[in-house]
Amino acid sequence: xxxxxxxxxxxxxxxxxxxxxxxxxxxxxxxxxxxxxxxxxxxxxxxxxxxxxxxxxxxxxxxxxxxxxxxxxxxxxxx
Amino acid sequence: xxxxxxxxxxxxxxxxxxxxxxxxxxxxxxxxxxxxxxxxxxxxxxxxxxxxxxxxxxxxxxxxxxxxxxxxxxxxxxxxxxxxxxxxxxxxxxxxxxxxxxxxxxxxxxxxxxxxxxxxxxxxxxxxxxxxxxxxxxxxxxxxxxxxxxxxxxxxxxxxxxxxxxxxxxxxxxxxxxxxxxxxxxxxxxxxxxxxxxxxxxxxxxxxxxxxxxxxxxxxxxxxxxxxxxxxxxxxxxxxx
Lengths: 79, 241
Known about the structure:
The structure holds two protein chains of two kinds.
Chain A lengths: L1 E6 L3 H5 L7 E5 L6 H7 L9 E4 L2 E3 L10 E5 L6
Parallel strand pairs in A: 1-5
Antiparallel strand pairs in A: 1-2, 3-4, 3-5
Chain B lengths: L3 H6 L1 H4 L6 H5 L2 E5 L3 H13 L3 E5 L24 H12 L4 E5 L8 H5 L4 E4 L4 H14 L3 E7 L2 E7 L7 H4 L15 H18 L9 E6 L4 E6 L13
Helix pairs in contact in B: 4-5, 4-9
């Protein structure tokens, strides 16, 4: 199964995009959670503040479907 | 009742459909943190004529603040931010009452110093204090206007439990946070003004555009994205409200 992960802000460098400057194509097994997929590609889930798909927030226990495009956002804490 | 001077001062905004200057004058807003975000939101809320601004920060002004904290100038260096901000705001709009809290927000003072306010604005620079302010807002069921910045990127949201989720529905406490935050002034300027606009809309009974939603602003590619933040049924803070 293939999904696409996008990253905003300073998370882009950690994601290592390969489709365009924001997006990485990821081959994974169906049934894995987003957290497990992040672990598999070597991206520590603790670097992800939240994720969303189609304008809606997704928890890291979300199980992606084929072709999903999921955006990962970094912690932003400055004021 | 507005004075003749106030009618003149606010004349241009009073032309906007649905504007109610008296309501703004009757409102007390709490701004936690007087850095880049707090500078922008405080100035625009004061200029708009919010009646009472509670300003909270225990820090002094440093030279490295001046690239983004537009409440201050070179002559402010070494002074307490609350005092400098109060002077600046009163010079901008003497009709605004400024109540300064020269402390850092913590669990011992948060309830007391926010007690009079109808809305809490986040200008903080750390997640611990944000989560604390969020808990106060959830307990009192008043709006918490979230803002945060890093580099070219900024987030803003308007949480008002129990109608919406809260900050803890969005961000997990266990995330790793960068030790030093790179920033240029335009990012907190943009987000702080958006926070101020959301406050004004809420006071005027116009639906805040970010009610239960998160704005993700990226100045490097000039993108604005808005996502829904649904209530997390397992949220440790707001799920019982």
